[in-house]
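Hi everyone,

Forwarding the result from last night's run.
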Amino acid sequence: MQLSRLPTAQLIKALLLTLLFAGPPAIANEMDSFAKCIAKSGAKYYRTWWCPYCAEQNKMFGSAERFLPAVECSKKGSREKLSRCEDVPGFPTWVFKDGGQASGALSLSLLSEFTHCPRPGSR
């Protein structure tokens, strides 16, 4: 009896898609913890819906983005800066509890260094 390769191929495709979009469960849980730690650290992440570098930063966090201490600086459909972000020089900008700030999509390593939160995969 010859086994069909189609079910195996479909299984492999489903597994790859799951890993691509969800990431390995342990890494996803670590990323959630990392984002929550960043929020607890007192950092603020100023971003806009239209900023490509903000989109890049968001993508680094995947589904854990929802835990970031994000401040949206323009209304959807508008590029006008909201008053709460008047002093923000550009996007994305991270402001840390100690008063330091950094602009641009920051690496997970830099965010770990600035917030003292353990970087995912570093344990």
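Residues 1-6 have pLDDT under 50 and may be disordered.

Cheers,
N.
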